[in-house]
Design goal:
The protein is of the alpha+beta class and 476 residues long. It contains 16 helices and 23 strands. The structure holds glycyl-adenosine-5'-phosphate. The site of glycyl-adenosine-5'-phosphate has 19 residues, from strand 10, strand 13, strand 16 and helix 12.
Length: 476
C-alpha cells in the first residue's frame, strides 16, 4: 500500500494533531527519543490496556507484575547482556559515521533486483549465524556498499558494540556502583519468578506478564518510533515443563497471531520470520512482521528461551530457582516461552494501518480528507459531541449527553467552527462517532450520528447513543 512518503506524511500528521513529538524539540530534539502528546498517549494506553487484558484477564494462568527499571548489576552478567548484547558495527573512515552491519547490507539489498537481493540476504544470514566478522566486511566490499554520507567504501573492520546504557548509583562514581538501564523487561520477571510462583500458588504452566520501559543505545536509530533509544515493551514469560517447549512455542505463535488479527489488520499484512541466527538465550525464535510503509519489519518476537535465564540466575545468585512439580514429584528449572512485543512499534503499526488520504472530489468540487481508521476500541476519542449552534439550549443538551457518557469512555466536546470542519478534525484524530445536537433534538430527542469510516449519518434517539458506542468499543 504505502511507501517512504507515506511514513513522512504519518510523522507530520502525528505532530500536527498531538500524537507524537520529537523529544526536547525546542532544543532541536534528542535523536531517536520521542514524546507522546495528548492523543498519542491515549492511543498508546488503549493498546497497552488491550494487551494487558488479553494476557492477565483472559487467561487463568497469567499474572502481571511491575518490576523496577534498575536491577542488581549481576542480573545483566547472568542474563548474558554484559558479554553478548552487542551488534556488529562498522565505521566509515571518511564520514566517521557508524553503521550496524546488517542494516547497512539490508538497505543495500533494497536497491537491488529481487533475485540479487535474495542472494545477498542469504549470504548475510550465513555469515551472521557463523559470527564471521571478516566475512561480513568482505560482503560489504564485494558489493561495493558505500557510506550514504561520504559516498566512499573506506570502512574499518567490523567490531562489536554493547547496547546497554550504564549509569552510577549512589554518590561515588566507581565501577562498583555501575547500574544499567534495563535493555529488556524480561529479567525483572525472571528474578521474581519464585516470589510470584509461591505467593500466587501458581502451577506450571503459568505466565508472568509485564509492560515497561527498556533502553538501548541503538546505533542506527531512525524511522520514527520504530527504533528508539527509550521504548516500551510488553513481555510475557510462560514457564513450562522441560520437554514441552515445542508445543508451547507453536501455541504462542498461533495465539499471538490471533491477537494481531483482532486489531482488524488483515492476515496478508503480517508474516512470520524464523530466525537463522538465534539470540544467546534461545533454541527457537521467530518474529511477527508487519508490512509497514517501510516494508515488512518486526513487531513482536516469540522466543523459546529454554532454562537459560533461570539457570544462570540460580548460578550467579547462589539461590535455588527450582520448581517442585507435584504431578511428577520432581524438582526442575522450568523452560520458558517468551512473547515480546514493542508497544511503540505497535503504535506505529496501528497508525500505519489506520492512516488514509482520501480523495472525496465530485464533478463540481475538489475535496479530500485525512482520516485515521482506528478500531473503535483503540481510538483516543470514542465520541465527539457537537451542538450545531452555541445557543438555543443546544449546548445544555450536549453537555447532558457528555456527562452521561464520560464515565464510560473518552468523549470530546466542541462547539466552535462549522460542523463540516469539526467532522474533519475528528476524522484526523480517528474518532469513530460524532453526534450533532440540533433544533430537532429539542422536539423529538433524536440526534444525528455520523460514522467516521463511511461518513454516513443517521438519526437516532439520544437515549441510545451511550449504548451504541459501548457496544462498538467492547473488546472481548
Ligand atoms: N526480551 C526479548 C527481547 O527484548 P527483542 O526482539 O530484542 O527481544 C522485543 O525485542 C521487541 O521489542 C521487538 O520485537 C520490538 O517490537 C521492540 N523493540 C526492540 N528494540 C526496540 C527499539 N530500539 N525501539 C523500539 N522498539 C524496540
Amino acid at each position: 500500500m504505502a511507501n517512504e512518503n507515506t511514513l513522512q506524511n504519518i510523522i507530520s500528521h502525528c505532530k500536527e494533531y498531538g500524537f507524537i513529538f520529537q523529544s526536547s524539540e525546542i532544543y532541536d530534539g534528542l535523536s531517536a527519543v520521542y514524546d507522546y502528546g495528548q492523543y498519542g498517549a491515549e492511543l498508546k494506553k488503549n493498546i497497552r490496556d488491550y494487551w494487558w487484558k488479553s494476557m492477565t484477564q483472559m487467561h487463568d494462568n497469567i499474572v502481571g507484575i511491575d518490576a523496577a527499571i534498575f536491577m542488581h548489576p549481576t542480573v545483566w552478567k547472568a542474563s548474558g547482556h554484559v558479554d553478548n548484547f552487542s551488534d556488529p558495527m562498522i565505521d566509515n573512515k571518511d564520514s566517521k559515521k557508524r553503521y550496524r552491519v546488517d542494516h547497512l547490507i539490508e538497505a543495500h539489498a533494497e536497491t537491488l533486483e529481487a533475485e540479487q537481493a535474495k542472494d545477498l540476504l542469504d549470504k548475510l544470514d550465513q555469515v551472521l549465524s557463523a559470527d564471521d566478522f571478516v566475512g561480513l566486511k568482505q560482503l560489504i566490499e564485494d558489493n561495493k556498499i558505500k557510506c550514504a554520507i561520504s559516498g566512499t567504501c573506506n570502512w574499518t573492520d567490523v567490531r562489536q558494540f554493547n547496547l546497554m546504557f550504564a549509569t552510577e548509583m549512589g554518590s561515588v562514581a566507581d565501577d562498583a556502583n555501575v547500574v544499567y538501564l534495563r535493555p529488556e523487561t524480561a529479567q525483572g520477571i525472571f528474578v521474581n519468578f519464585l516470589n510470584v510462583q509461591k505467593t500466587g500458588r501458581l502451577k506450571v504452566p503459568f505466565g508472568i506478564a509485564q509492560v515497561g520501559k527498556a533502553f538501548r543505545n541503538e546505533i542506527v536509530a531512525r524511522q520514527f518510533i520504530f527504533r528508539m533509544r527509550e521504548f516500551e515493551q510488553m513481555e510475557m514469560q510462560f514457564f513450562i515443563k522441560p520437554g514441552t517447549q515445542k508445543e508451547w512455542y507453536e501455541y504462542w505463535k498461533e495465539t499471538r497471531m490471533k491477537w494481531h488479527l483482532s486489531l482488524g489488520i488483515p492476515q496478508d499484512s503480517y508474516r512470520f520470520h524464523d530466525h537463522v541466527k538465534l539470540a544467546h538465550y534461545a533454541d527457537a525464535a521467530c518474529d511477527i512482521e508487519y508490512n509497514f510503509p517501510i516494508g515488512f519489519k518486526e513487531v513482536e518476537g516469540i522466543h523459546s528461551r529454554t532454562d537459560f535465564d533461570l539457570k544462570n540466575h540460580q548460578q550467579f545468585s547462589g539461590k535455588k530457582l527450582t520448581y517442585f512439580d507435584t504431578e511428577i514429584n520432581q524438582h526442575y528449572i522450568p523452560y520458558v516461552i517468551e512473547t515480546s512485543i514493542g508497544l511503540d512499534r505497535t503504535v506505529m503499526m496501528v497508525l500505519s494501518e489506520a492512516y488514509r488520504e482520501e480523495d472525496l472530489s465530485t464533478e463540481d468540487k475538489k475535496d479530500s480528507r485525512v482520516v485515521l481508521k482506528f478500531p473503535p476500541m483503540l481510538a483516543p476519542i470514542k465520541l465527539a459531541i457537537l451542538p450545531l449552534l452555541k445557543k438555543d439550549g443546544l449546548p445544555e443538551i450536549a453537555k447532558e449527553l457528555l456527562n452521561e457518557c464520560r464515565p464510560h469512555f473518552k468523549c470530546f466536546y466542541e462547539e466552535k467552527d462549522t460542523i463540516g470542519k469539526r467532522y474533519r478534525r475528528m476524522d484526523a484524530l480517528g474518532t469513530p462517532f460524532c453526534v450533532t445536537i440540533d433544533h430537532q433534538t429539542k422536539e423529538d430527542q433524536t440526534v444525528t450520528i455520523r460514522h467516521r469510516d463511511t461518513m454516513t449519518q443517521e438519526r437516532m434517539p439520544i437515549s441510545e447513543v451511550k449504548q451504541l458506542v459501548m457496544g462498538k468499543i467492547q473488546n472481548f
